[in-house]
Amino acid sequence: MAEPEMRVLDRGVVERCVAAFDPLDVVESALRSHAAGSAVLPAEAYLEWSNHAGAHCRSVAMPGGVPGRDGLVYGVKIINAAVSNPSAGMERAGGVTMLFDPGTARPYLMADAGYLSALRTAAYTLLSVRHLGPQARESISLIGCGALAREHLRLFARYDPSITVAYIYDLDPSRIRGLADWAALNTPGITIVSCHSAAEAVAASAVVITLTTSRKPYIERDWLRPGCFVGHVSLDDLTENVFLEAEAVFVDDATLVRDNPRRILGRLMAEDKIRAAAGTLGEVLVGTRQAIRPHNGVVISNPFGMSILDIALLEQVARTAEETRLGSLLRVFGLCEDRWQPTNAGFSHCPT
Ligand SMILES: NC(=O)c1ccc[n+]([C@@H]2O[C@H](COP(=O)([O-])OP(=O)(O)OC[C@H]3O[C@@H](n4cnc5c(N)ncnc54)[C@H](O)[C@@H]3O)[C@@H](O)[C@H]2O)c1
């Protein structure tokens, strides 16, 4: 049997293929599969280091399997990040997601991971606001104005017409300006209000979404309005009291969150401190857990970020790419005998 070729999709192709389906439907379906126990979600592998400028760098490998049209779809997302990348004009996070042939286990498709990662994260927030957020809402507050903030604005503009104002804040004023300029062109239906502090932005809305790289909690309980929903997407923004006094805390996968010491909720769950009603958004979607919306307190949605959402989206992208013959086919596996020949030093490439 000949070694298969691998299809490689850059971001432009991924974005084109995403236009062919509804990403919220795909993410919701993967969450339902997970809640029904029909997805496979092993622990992630995490590697970290500091670069030459002393900035934090990390590589996360996240495997998973999720039901697709023809059975389980297996793959892995490798998402790396250096905190110093934005100052060099690059997105902080980037990587690749691969899909595996279920029969041979060979990777058959590799694609840019950054866009799908932001898309699936924002889609998860949209679904959690829809099912766990306040019924009456007109604005959102975004803390952190990077890549994820853009994708959140894009999806709120597309899926939630009740949101007409976004209060935004970032420690870096140039990123506030950058997001406001981007939004003026791309999400004109949402008015952007730039804030001077995180406290001002947090107090402005009943839907608050943290999208920062903070490694130290700073949002105090009394900054938040009564009846507030918080999408705690980044790892370490809410202080301990906000969790301890919450009306409810929802996650995507309790084991993954609990086993992760790099996020405040993981540490609190490992110490068995969370007393609020808790469950997963997937359970709410399949009806095995009652949704709790904020009344006078705070409801928190705190996703770990599951690989199966990336893999489910990528399967849809892969189908479109194959049908429309997009991407590049590379021969990666095995030795192609007509092009390589053995020498004393190993193999050398033969001109074709
Ligand atoms: N839970 C999930 O599913 C999930 C998925 C993907 C990414 N994330 C997390 O989301 C976060 C945002 O990702 P991104 O790609 O948009 O990052 P990014 O680097 O593009 O943007 C982060 C922004 O946060 C700002 N910031 C840092 N500390 C701040 C603070 N204390 N107050 C206000 N602003 C602050 C930075 O200046 C930067 O502009 C990261 O922490 C990432 O790990 C979570």
Notable traits:
alpha/beta; 11 helices; 8-stranded parallel sheet; ornithine cyclodeaminase, domain 1; 7-stranded mixed sheet; Rossmann fold; 17 strands; 352 residues; 2 domains; binds nicotinamide-adenine-dinucleotide; 27% strand; 32% helix; globular
Quick overview:
With 352 residues, this protein is α/β, with parallel strands linked by helices. The chain is built from eleven helices and 17 strands.
Protein described:
With 352 residues, the chain is α/β, with parallel strands linked by helices. The chain has two domains: 6-115 and 307-349, ornithine cyclodeaminase, domain 1 (2-Layer Sandwich), CATH 3.30.1780.10; 132-301, Rossmann fold (3-Layer(aba) Sandwich), CATH 3.40.50.720. The protein has eleven helices and 17 strands. It has helices at 11-18, 23-35, 114-132, 147-159, 173-186, 198-204, 240-244, 254-258, 264-270, 281-286, 307-323; strands at residues 6-9, 45-50, 56-68, 71-82, 93-100, 107-112, 139-143, 165-169, 191-194, 207-210, 228-232, 248-251, 277-280, 298-301, 328-330, 340-343, 346-349. The strands form three sheets. An eight-stranded parallel sheet has the order 9-8-7-10-11-14-12-13, sandwiched between helices. A seven-stranded mixed sheet has the order 2-3-4-5-6-1-15. A hairpin with a 2-residue loop joins strand 3 (56-68) and strand 4. Helix 1 (11-18) packs across helix 11 (307-323) and helix 4 runs parallel beside helix 5 (173-186). The longest helix is centred in the middle third of the chain and has 19 residues, at 114-132. The relative contact order is 0.18. The protein binds nicotinamide-adenine-dinucleotide. Residues 86, 92-93, 117, 121, 143-149, 169-172, 175, 198, 211-214, 218, 233-235, 303, 305 line the site of nicotinamide-adenine-dinucleotide (NAD).
